[in-house]
């Protein structure tokens, strides 16, 4: 047609890049626009999006650093003689992590080049449904036209701007992974899993960390599991200020921050000093500067996210959206990638396969990890009724914890099934080491319609934590002790 | 324990014949005392050694020199095993199962003679019997083997550090032990007669061997020991002959660990007195699909079964289901198909279903599709560990909807990864279903 490109993707993150590269496979002319607006603290990064730069990747690496701290303690029980004291230096870790992330930025640039996808380091906005105006950092403008446009600009952390000092003195996850110096004594007023994960690894590397929660942690997740996760963090050393919310942040001459908050239980006002305040109050879709109104792309009035149908189409023909900024979709890298790929296949590859958002497995990488797939117990009860579901559960102890004398109180798993004859599995929840590795294969089983009897027929691998899932047999209904005993 | 649930009068006879070096252990069998449990714990000790190295790259600082103390580890491991032995004694007691620490052998129909440590004999009769005596490590049958060599029966409670070790064998026991010994900092050599991990996917077996070699373990291929004798003080001299010619080599080691296979404990328990047929060559007991021997009231489970897998979970499942069929009117038989397993070598290997060779043989090369990939665990990036060693492959049967008939993964936490896929294979998963499952990010399993 008259348009320059067959496909233009705005946003070089997980969803955008996957879509662009897939489209290029079909011999199409594809371009990607990626631009990172610096955070209020001035942090910015390269190509790859949230996951690569300020999400999954640095988070998991720093989580690993914390896990290695525990490994150092365990190692002594296993006969390794390590002279005390052992301490952690932030700059060594941060530099290593940042270097790896930069190698990924580079890798993505090379991949786009290899696949002949044109890359523009520009901030895009709509002029009309087929035209994007790109602006470089220096203010140079380029007009790009495309037959199809995919919006995949993701989201950025929100600031609680109604709290005095929040914007000026606080940081977010956008900044945490790029700090050159240790964050020191940290407060994270929080709601979501990313910050629970951050609080977890900060504690693990030896920093004084406090989480402030107004109501419930890990909203949207199974609440019993969420409690166990936070319980573990408390015994691990993370401090929790429950049912509190911050009212102001002030900077002292010493450069330290003074935070004042309200304790809703006691009705009192309290205050303390921190080196860092990291806000984790949610993410907002990055759509403000896209000029969506000019082309009529509809967004959800409450969340600001772009409304799409099952084929990722927006309200405007030829304009699509994938990833974190789409309404009603999980904010996960793998779903964005899959959605982006399938979209490209439908647009250019004669496929009609739609994205299946059901039974998407996920893992929270807290010090004691939590992996899950399918329905939470509450959701299952709400959907089918208490009498129609059966919950099998067990408390277990990972073999590796025994010699290491580690507390396994919160190592727990449960499987929610339909009670009727076939006993199809509705949800699986696992807290323990390597939770992601454990859950992945079972997610596949659930995709195949796995039933409880099929699981029982599966022989366990010994000795692992995952085998306990195949041995689940005590129901919550029975009221019996669900602790696994014996070899 | 399962039978006791159905209010049956149950007795268990357990007795451990000491090893040639005089070693013995408590209730629980091979897995608990000289198998899975101590093996995995020592493997963990070795993994922690690696973790220590990695941790420096992640910012942890501590003294350069870190040494491993064998005694500290072994004591901890033995203490844990002791707690398991105790746990089993208590469990049997609570379930009102009579336990005798005595050697049992058949003396006539429905009759067993039990001889305890002090030689006191007692006779017991029962309606039904279950033979679950398992196996013990095989010896080479060469001069000096029983006198100087240890086996896995001795290794996990060895009261001194094994030092420079020669591991004879290429079984998973041999490679797992060689692996963790090297991980603890010891000088390890593995002497292999022919191939590694017979019965396992050979492509993967070779990758495992390669990884071990790259990480400091020496391999002497196509040699077998012909004599073991005392060498310089504190050392053993091993003389070995090539399997391909007349070449003779010699070497000196502090410890020689034999891991060349296991023999069923079926030859001295009076099976001939009651007519239970065994495979004369292997000593294993053939059973039908209900674990019944040729004598209707005598059953068998576990490592001694012919043509079945030598795995703890299989033995447990078979034992439980057998009892449920006998006493609870159940009909479920143990499903021996697609049993997953994991080899805990330094680079762990999880598998379920057909090896590539077995799939080619069963279905024909043109009827299978093998999807494979190397991968780099995220946790290995920062410490710059091997970036192209971890590997995964699935074998699909094209005509049957591209059903997944074999799953293989080589990488960290292979057991945890494999378990769920085994469940999916049990549900008949196809390649398409695999493709449509979303990954968890960032993990190896995705």
TrEMBL record, chain A:
<dbReference type="InterPro" id="IPR006338">
    <property type="entry name" value="Thioredoxin/glutathione_Rdtase"/>
</dbReference>
<dbReference type="InterPro" id="IPR023753">
    <property type="entry name" value="FAD/NAD-binding_dom"/>
</dbReference>
<keyword id="KW-0712">Selenocysteine</keyword>
<feature type="active site" description="Proton acceptor">
    <location>
        <position position="462"/>
    </location>
</feature>
<keyword id="KW-0285">Flavoprotein</keyword>
<feature type="disulfide bond" description="Redox-active">
    <location>
        <begin position="51"/>
        <end position="56"/>
    </location>
</feature>
<dbReference type="Pfam" id="PF07992">
    <property type="entry name" value="Pyr_redox_2"/>
</dbReference>
<feature type="binding site">
    <location>
        <position position="60"/>
    </location>
    <ligand>
        <name>FAD</name>
    </ligand>
</feature>
<dbReference type="GO" id="GO:0004362">
    <property type="term" value="F:glutathione-disulfide reductase (NADPH) activity"/>
</dbReference>
<dbReference type="InterPro" id="IPR036188">
    <property type="entry name" value="FAD/NAD-bd_sf"/>
</dbReference>
<keyword id="KW-1015">Disulfide bond</keyword>
<keyword id="KW-0520">NAD</keyword>
<dbReference type="InterPro" id="IPR001100">
    <property type="entry name" value="Pyr_nuc-diS_OxRdtase"/>
</dbReference>
<feature type="domain" description="Pyridine nucleotide-disulphide oxidoreductase dimerisation">
    <location>
        <begin position="360"/>
        <end position="471"/>
    </location>
</feature>
<comment type="similarity">
    <text>Belongs to the class-I pyridine nucleotide-disulfide oxidoreductase family.</text>
</comment>
<dbReference type="Pfam" id="PF02852">
    <property type="entry name" value="Pyr_redox_dim"/>
</dbReference>
<keyword id="KW-0521">NADP</keyword>
<dbReference type="GO" id="GO:0045454">
    <property type="term" value="P:cell redox homeostasis"/>
</dbReference>
<dbReference type="GO" id="GO:0004791">
    <property type="term" value="F:thioredoxin-disulfide reductase (NADPH) activity"/>
</dbReference>
<feature type="binding site">
    <location>
        <position position="282"/>
    </location>
    <ligand>
        <name>NAD(+)</name>
    </ligand>
</feature>
<feature type="binding site">
    <location>
        <position position="324"/>
    </location>
    <ligand>
        <name>FAD</name>
    </ligand>
</feature>
<dbReference type="GO" id="GO:0005829">
    <property type="term" value="C:cytosol"/>
</dbReference>
TrEMBL record, chain B:
<comment type="similarity">
    <text>Belongs to the class-I pyridine nucleotide-disulfide oxidoreductase family.</text>
</comment>
<dbReference type="GO" id="GO:0006749">
    <property type="term" value="P:glutathione metabolic process"/>
</dbReference>
<dbReference type="GO" id="GO:0050660">
    <property type="term" value="F:flavin adenine dinucleotide binding"/>
</dbReference>
<feature type="disulfide bond" description="Redox-active">
    <location>
        <begin position="31"/>
        <end position="36"/>
    </location>
</feature>
<keyword id="KW-0712">Selenocysteine</keyword>
<feature type="active site" description="Proton acceptor">
    <location>
        <position position="441"/>
    </location>
</feature>
<dbReference type="GO" id="GO:0050137">
    <property type="term" value="F:NADPH peroxidase activity"/>
</dbReference>
<keyword id="KW-0676">Redox-active center</keyword>
<keyword id="KW-0560">Oxidoreductase</keyword>
<protein>
    <recommendedName>
        <fullName>Thioredoxin reductase 1, cytoplasmic</fullName>
        <ecNumber>1.11.1.2</ecNumber>
        <ecNumber>1.8.1.9</ecNumber>
    </recommendedName>
</protein>
<dbReference type="GO" id="GO:0004791">
    <property type="term" value="F:thioredoxin-disulfide reductase (NADPH) activity"/>
</dbReference>
<keyword id="KW-0547">Nucleotide-binding</keyword>
<dbReference type="InterPro" id="IPR023753">
    <property type="entry name" value="FAD/NAD-binding_dom"/>
</dbReference>
<dbReference type="Pfam" id="PF02852">
    <property type="entry name" value="Pyr_redox_dim"/>
</dbReference>
<dbReference type="InterPro" id="IPR012999">
    <property type="entry name" value="Pyr_OxRdtase_I_AS"/>
</dbReference>
<feature type="binding site">
    <location>
        <begin position="169"/>
        <end position="176"/>
    </location>
    <ligand>
        <name>NAD(+)</name>
    </ligand>
</feature>
<dbReference type="InterPro" id="IPR016156">
    <property type="entry name" value="FAD/NAD-linked_Rdtase_dimer_sf"/>
</dbReference>
<feature type="binding site">
    <location>
        <position position="303"/>
    </location>
    <ligand>
        <name>FAD</name>
    </ligand>
</feature>
<dbReference type="InterPro" id="IPR036188">
    <property type="entry name" value="FAD/NAD-bd_sf"/>
</dbReference>
<keyword id="KW-1015">Disulfide bond</keyword>
<feature type="binding site">
    <location>
        <position position="261"/>
    </location>
    <ligand>
        <name>NAD(+)</name>
    </ligand>
</feature>
<comment type="function">
    <text>Reduces disulfideprotein thioredoxin (Trx) to its dithiol-containing form. Homodimeric flavoprotein involved in the regulation of cellular redox reactions, growth and differentiation. Contains a selenocysteine residue at the C-terminal active site that is essential for catalysis. Also has reductase activity on hydrogen peroxide (H2O2).</text>
</comment>
């Amino acid at each position: 047609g008259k348009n320059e490109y067959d496909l233009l993707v705005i946003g070089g993150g997980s969803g955008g890049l996957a879509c662009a590269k897939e489209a290029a496979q079909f011999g199409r002319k594809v371009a990607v626009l990626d631009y990172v607006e610096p955070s209020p603290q001035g942090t910015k990064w390269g190509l790859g999006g949230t996951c690569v730069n300020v999400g999954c990747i640095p988070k998991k690496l720093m989580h690993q650093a914390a896990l290695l701290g525990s490994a150092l303690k365990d190692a002594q029980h296993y006969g390794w003689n390590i002279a005390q004291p052992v301490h952690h230096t932030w700059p060594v870790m941060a530099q290593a992590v940042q270097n790896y992330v930069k190698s990924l930025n580079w890798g993505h640039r090379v991949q786009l080049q290899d696949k002949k996808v044109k890359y523009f380091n520009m901030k895009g906005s709509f002029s009309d449904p087929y035209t994007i105006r790109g602006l470089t950092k220096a203010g140079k403008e380029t007009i790009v036209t495309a037959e199809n446009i995919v919006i995949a600009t993701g989201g950025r952390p929100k600031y609680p701007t109604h709290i005095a000092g929040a914007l000026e003195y606080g940081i977010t996850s956008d900044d945490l992974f790029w700090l050159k110096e240790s964050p020191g004594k940290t407060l994270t007023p929080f709601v979501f899993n990313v910050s629970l994960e951050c609080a977890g690894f900060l504690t693990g590397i030896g920093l004084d960390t406090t989480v402030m929660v107004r109501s419930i942690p890990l909203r949207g997740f199974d609440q019993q599991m969420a409690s166990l996760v936070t319980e573990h963090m408390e015994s691990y050393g993370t401090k929790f200020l429950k049912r509190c919310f911050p009212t102001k942040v002030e900077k002292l001459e010493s450069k330290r921050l003074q935070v004042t908050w309200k304790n809703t239980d006691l009705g009192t006002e309290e205050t303390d000093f921190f080196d860092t305040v990291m806000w984790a109050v949610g993410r907002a879709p990055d759509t403000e500067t896209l000029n969506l109104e000019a082309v009529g792309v509809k967004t959800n009035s409450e969340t600001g996210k772009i409304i799409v149908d099952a084929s990722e189409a927006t309200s405007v023909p030829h304009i699509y959206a994938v990833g974190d900024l789409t309404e009603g979709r999980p904010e996960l890298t793998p779903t964005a990638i899959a959605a982006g790929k399938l979209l490209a296949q439908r647009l250019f590859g004669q496929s009609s396969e739609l994205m299946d958002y059901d039974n998407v497995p996920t893992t929270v990488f807290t010090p004691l990890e939590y992996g899950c797939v399918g329905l939470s117990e509450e959701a299952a009860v709400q959907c089918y009724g208490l009498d129609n579901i059966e919950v099998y559960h067990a408390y277990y102890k990972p073999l590796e914890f025994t010699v290491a004398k580690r507390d396994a109180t919160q190592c727990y798993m449960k499987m929610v099934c339909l009670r009727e004859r076939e006993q199809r599995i509705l949800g699986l929840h696992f807290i323990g080491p390597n939770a992601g590795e454990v859950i992945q294969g079972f997610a596949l089983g659930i995709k195949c319609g796995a039933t409880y009897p099929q699981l029982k027929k599966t022989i366990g691998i010994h000795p692992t934590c995952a085998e306990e899932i195949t041995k689940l047999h005590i129901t919550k209904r029975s009221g019996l002790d669900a602790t696994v005993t014996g070899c | 324990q399962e039978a006791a649930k159905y209010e049956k009068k149950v007795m268990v006879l357990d007795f451990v014949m000491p090893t040639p070096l005089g070693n013995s252990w408590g209730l629980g069998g091979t897995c608990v005392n000289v198998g899975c449990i101590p093996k995995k714990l020592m493997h963990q000790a070795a993994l922690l050694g690696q973790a220590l190295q990695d941790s420096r790259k992640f910012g942890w600082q501590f003294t350069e020199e870190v040494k491993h103390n064998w005694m500290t580890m072994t004591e901890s491991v033995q203490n844990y095993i002791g707690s398991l032995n105790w746990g089993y004694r208590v469990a049997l007691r609570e379930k009102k199962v009579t336990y005798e620490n005595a050697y049992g052998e058949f003396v006539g129909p429905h009759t067993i003679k039990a001889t305890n440590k002090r030689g006191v004999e007692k006779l017991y009769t029962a309606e039904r019997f279950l033979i679950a005596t398992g196996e013990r490590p095989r010896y080479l049958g060469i001069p000096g083997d029983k006198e100087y060599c240890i086996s896995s029966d001795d290794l996990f409670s060895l009261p001194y550090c094994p030092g420079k070790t020669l591991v004879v064998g290429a079984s998973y026991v041999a490679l797992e032990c060689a692996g963790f010994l090297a991980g603890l900092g010891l000088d390890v050599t593995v002497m292999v007669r022919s191939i590694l991990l017979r019965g396992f996917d050979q492509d993967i077996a070779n990758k495992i061997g390669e990884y071990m070699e790259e990480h400091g373990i020496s391999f002497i291929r196509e040699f077998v020991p012909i004599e073991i004798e005392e060498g310089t003080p504190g050392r053993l001299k091993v003389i070995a002959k090539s399997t391909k010619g007349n070449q003779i080599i010699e070497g000196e080691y502090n410890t020689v660990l034999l891991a060349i296979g296991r023999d069923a404990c079926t030859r001295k328990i009076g099976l001939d007195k009651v007519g239970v047929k065994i495979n004369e060559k292997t000593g294993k007991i053939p059973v039908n699909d209900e674990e019944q021997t040729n004598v209707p009231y005598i059953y068998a489970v576990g490592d001694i079964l012919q043509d079945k897998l030598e795995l703890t979970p299989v033995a447990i499942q078979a034992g439980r289901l057998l009892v449920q069929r006998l006493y609870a009117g159940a009909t479920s038989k143990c499903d021996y198909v697609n049993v997953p397993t994991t080899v805990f070598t330094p680079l762990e290997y999880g598998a379920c279903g057909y090896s590539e060779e077995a799939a080619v043989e069963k279905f024909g090369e043109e009827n299978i599709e093998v999807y494979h990939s190397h991968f780099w665990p995220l946790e290995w990036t920062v410490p710059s560990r091997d970036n192209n060693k971890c590997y995964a492959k699935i074998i699909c049967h094209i005509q049957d909807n591209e059903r997944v008939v074999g799953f293989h993964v080589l990488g960290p936490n292979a057991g945890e990864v494999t378990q769920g896929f085994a469940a999916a294979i049990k549900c008949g998963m196809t390649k398409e279903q695999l493709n449509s499952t979303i990954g968890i990010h960032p993990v190896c399993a995705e």
